[in-house]
Amino acid sequence: MYFIRDHIPEINISGIIVTYIEGIKLVYFIIFFILYLFLLHYAVLGVVGVFTRKTFPHAKHKNKFGLIIPARNEEAVIATIIKSIRKTDYPQELLDIFVIAHNCTDNTAAIARSAGAHVYEYNNPAENTVGYALRQIFKFIEADYGNNSFDGFFIFDADNTFDEKYFDRMNDAFEYYDRKYVISSFRQASNFNENIMTVLYGAYFATTCYLGSRGRTVLNTSNRIYGCGYVFNSELVKDGWNYVSLTEDLEFSAKEVLKGTQIRYCDDAVFYDEQPTSFRIMWKQRLRWAKGHLSVSGENFARLAKAVFEPGRKNRYAAYDMAAFNSRPILVVEMIKLIKYFCMLLSPLFGGYIEQTLQIILYDFVNGILSFSAISAVLYLLTMFCGRKRFRSVSPTKKLAGVFLFPIFLLFQFIMDVQALFSKDLTWEAIPHIGKKDT
């Protein structure tokens, strides 16, 4: 067999004799080396999260909280979340439940009222993201109660349920940081063991908690919000809620970090949500996330990168970390690889043979996929190890299947990102919930 070096003319670069293909490999090795250096902190966060976590002392003072639940056609689950809140150990007179039934065509509002919540209805088809619902309900609360009547506000989804000690644990962390920081919590799938899709979803969110949020909090740097299950001081919304994009959680995280707000994580506070059970719904949801992520990244990446070098800024690392996340690393890496392969395909212009070039590209592509899969499988196994007590409901067979399927679940993200780049009409859509829970 002939090798590409036998057919492609050699090019002298600084006295080093290399072939055209080898030159491309060298250039892109340097690019990827620099890129991975920028992302190396993720590995540090993961290691810290596996071996340690931050706990908070019991707080004697009990804060008064407003619990915000945006709900669109959630009649199947809205009563369940309210009942779950009322079953927690926290003093119930300090928990006011507010439901914003937005663009509903079912009995969500009536059922929520019957269950004891304060309910507001809001209908505007042009404003159909969760962010718009949040913006509206804080206007209602300000008018009727005054936002400063509460020490803090929680943001939940309508399908959430809670451990009995959830609000106690969150109050402990909230008090520990003098009620100044945003506090997120551990997100677990309520239907973790239903099928392999819910196992993959559950593992995905658990990975962000165990291998990201834990480490950031232990190292005393800002975290980020993933969806819901977080509390913040009422002062944060003194001028209202201003995050209305498709992914308001990421927009909230990026802009609050820019403002200097600290976001921490409470590993002992566990809430549950129902994860999609089908491939179609999974794709629809994650494609929307990808579109929202790209939009928020386009708006905030440059500002976050600039903030890293601002004189006097105290949270430089948090800005750097958030900028790295907003850069959409998987998309960037794969797009660079595509450019690399395109350059390789030009080798015949320099005397090379297309057959050998394709062999090299195929080898490089397969090697990249295998490397990514191996890393993803390790992340999955570490997550299962960290959550071995919490994930007892998941059958051994499904756990084992996840080792092989989790890398594919993550790889889909690149395809979704590319699709999102060229999708113009993506809008927020409610994900159906039916209230299933593992037994």
What proportion of the residues form beta strands (DSSP E)? 5-15%
- CATH topology category name: Spore Coat Polysaccharide Biosynthesis Protein SpsA, Chain A
Counting DSSP E segments of at least 2 residues, the number of strands comes to: 10
Distance between the termini: 59 Å
Describe this structure in words.
By secondary structure, the protein is an alpha/beta fold. The protein has one domain (1-439): Spore Coat Polysaccharide Biosynthesis Protein SpsA, Chain A, CATH 3.90.550.10. It is built from 13 helices and ten strands. The protein has helices spanning 20-38, 41-51, 78-86, 108-114, 130-144, 166-176, 196-218, 248-259, 279-307, 316-326, 329-345, 354-386, 396-421, and strands at 10-13, 16-19, 65-71, 95-102, 118-122, 152-155, 161-162, 182-189, 230-233, 263-273. Strand 4, helix 4 and strand 5 form a beta-alpha-beta unit. Helix 2 (41-51) packs across helix 7 (196-218). The protein is globular and about 80 Å long. Residues 1-17 have low confidence and may be disordered.
